[in-house]
Amino acid sequence: MLREDLQNSLKEAMKQKDMKTVNAVRLIIAGQKEKDVEARGKGLEKADDATLLAMMQTMIKQRNESVRIYQENNRPDLAAKELDEIEVITRFLPKQMSVEEITAAVKDAIAQTGAAGIKDMGKVMGALKGKYAGQMDFGAASGIIKQLLG
Questions:
Q1: I need a labelling partner for 114 at 20 to 30 A (CA). Which of 10, 28, 71, 97 fits?
Q2: Are the beta carbons of 137 and 64 closer than 8 angstroms?
Q3: CATH 1.10.10.410 fits 99-149, yes or no
Q4: 2-90 maps to which CATH number?
């Protein structure tokens, strides 16, 4: 479904000559192709949607960091370009979870994995990434896991 949405958005943006969207979607598709190559190396046909959603979240984090750097160095033109790309990438991500929803999901994952201490954090993160890729801020989840297990 995600792949079709990307292709359809690219076609529509090209028809409307919306180069901001065309460029951002092409970046996503390029990343998708990289993930597909990685998946084939692991014996899979292509990368799953969870992997692609995680990749897009990483793209957003990278662009947010770039925006911060550009703003610190008085380059609002480059910062605006990065913000435009963030806006386009965000269109393809599911609704992000609130802190309360993340906390509930972490508690559920702790119960499911039987995590007893901070050394079990990896199990909990693995369970969360498998179930909530693209929807959860895993940085926030990490802090909540540490708080609950520590």
A1: 97
A2: no
A3: yes
A4: 1.10.1510.10
Contact 49, 64 (CB under 8 A): no
Cα distances (angstroms) measured from residue 65 to each of 70, 147, 148? 9, 26, 29
Residue 32, by phi and psi: left (phi above 0), alpha (psi -120 to 50) or beta?
alpha
Residues of CATH 1.10.10.410 domain(s) within the chain?
99-149
- For range 36-54, the mean pLDDT: 90
Q: Count CB atoms within 10 A of the CB of residue 79.
A: 19
The CB-side HSE value for 110 (13 A sphere, CA atoms) comes to: 20
Q: What is the DSSP string of 67-98?
A: HHHHHHTT-HHHHHHHHHHHHHHHTTSPPPPP
Predicted TM-score (pTM) of the model is 0.73
Where are the CATH 1.10.1510.10 domain residues in the chain?
2-90
d(CA 27, CA 10): 11
